[in-house]
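Researcher: Please translate sequence to structure tokens.
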Amino acid sequence: NYVMVGGFVLAILVALVVVVALLTGKTGATVSYFTRLDNVAGIKYGTKVTYEGFAVGQVESIQPMRIDGKTAFRIELAVSREWQIPKDSIARVAASGILAAVTVDIKGGTSADMLAPGADIAAGPAANIFAVMNDVAGQITDLNQNALKPLLFGLTQQVGTLGTIVERHAPELMNHLITVA
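Model: Translation complete:
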């Protein structure tokens, strides 16, 4: 009986290890590629890497860097060894829906030349609704500060000037209006 129970427990442990390996995506040989992004909101170790939506790997590491006075992030992508990436491909942060997990999606290029393992994949703009909404909010703020406020200030001055002119000349204008009518 002890041998059967021990064998059962050992089989369950092996099954648990296999399931954990499958869930983490670390089931095969991988090669590293790198990309540089300005914003890594929602990206962490283990974040899924997709190629045109097909899961091909995961994020291995994120390293902050200072470039020209700005912070950027160098991301190591562990991609399945047999997956080849065209040289003109673009990596970007994406979410397939409002409640979907953030991924690093590689938009495949059309080049016949493939990137060598360890190469950099060009970065593109984020492709999720929150990034777009953030960009639109920034544009609205800019429009408000640089266009609407000066326009309203100028309009207020013109209306004030017109009010002063009408106030001074209202009796004379009314007399001319009565004369014409």
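Researcher: Any highlights?
Model: The longest helix spans residues 129-180.
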